[in-house]
Amino acid sequence: MPTIAIVILVLFSAALAGVLVARPAITLSRAGKVLAFGVFFFLPLFSLVAGMENEMQRSESTAFCLSCHIMEPYGKSLHIDDPSYLAGAHFQNHRVPADEACYTCHTNYAMFGTVKAKFGGLRHLYIYYLGKPPLPENIKLYEPFNNRECLHCHLGARSFEQGATHNADPATLPAIKANTLSCVSSGCHDTVHNVGHWGDKVKFWDGGS
Amino acid sequence: MHPGGSMDRRLRISGILVIAGLLVEALCLVWSKPIAFVVLVCIGGALVGVGVLFFLCSLISAPHPTGSSGAAAGKQSG
After folding, report:
1. Is residue A47 located within the same domain as residue A70?
2. Has residue B70 got a pLDDT over 60?
3. B3 DSSP 8-state letter
């Protein structure tokens, strides 16, 4: 449901509740009692669930992640005009949905992964508002990046399964799939955001959304 | 005193709580900051939840109508 529709529903529910607050005598009739039940029970809970669901979806958007000041350099890294930058290459070539770029790679594709990602987001909020947020270049993942997140898309893809580098050593591909050889920290795809180490010569691509 | 005065007061209280919660929710929906979600759940959700619970409690504790003529008859006989 679009945000504007939920806002209208919420305001409509509040207006109906306002009518009953102003004129509680309406509830003396049977129809009034049914209306009161709808207005004070069904509509507020439905509006609340719809609003929360909408917020949950919005929390997956790239714009949501980048609305925190501390994330600005990470947003800029998506536009770096250099294919060796993993995040930028994925974003610019739509290997991940551009409007959910952060969430697509940084969620957890295991069971309850979405819940875990949401709790991680709450932890970010806590640190941002009540803790001492680190400088953008000092931000680290809570745990090493799991290949499972890469393999969610790349497993079975021809470029991954038959890639020359991946098959140069017969032990490489099984090690990647078993998460014993990391995609991003093994000297293979280790330039991801690289915030704080761009130097002066880095160029930015001004296309995309 | 109006026979339904107590019930009216409870309806008003639950209504005001629900309205406050819904207004907080509406503000959070148009406020595009990450903290909006926390405000929606912690303040908006709490206000709506308390309002709904208060409404349900007021229904349970409302004076039970006696006889077939409803609450008014019950009040008169009581």
Report:
1. no
2. no
3. T
Mutation target vs A (from B16, B31, B37, B68; most A CBs, 10 A cutoff): B37
Whether residues A52 and B19 touch (CB distance < 8 A) is answered with: no
**Which of B35, B45, B52 lies nearest to residue A40, judging by beta carbons?**
B52
**What is the tens place of the pLDDT at every residue in A88-119?**
999 999 999 999 999 999 998 888 888 888 88
Residue A160 CB contacts under 8 Å (≥ 6 apart), including other chains: A154, A166
Task: Give yes or no for residue B75 having a pLDDT over 80.
Answer: no
For chain B, the helix, strand and coil percentages under 3-state DSSP, each to the nearest 5: 75, 0, 25
Longest dimension (CA), chain B: 57
Based on the fold, state whether residues A45 and A105 are members of the same structural domain. no
Say if residue B29's pLDDT is above 80: yes
Tell me if B29 and A18 make a contact (CB, 8 A cut-off). no
A186 falls within a domain: no
The shortest C-alpha distance from A24 to chain B (Å) reads 6
The larger pLDDT score, comparing residue B34 to residue B19, is at B19
Cβ–Cβ of B40/A55 closer than 8 Å?
yes
User: Is A14 among the domain residues?
Assistant: yes
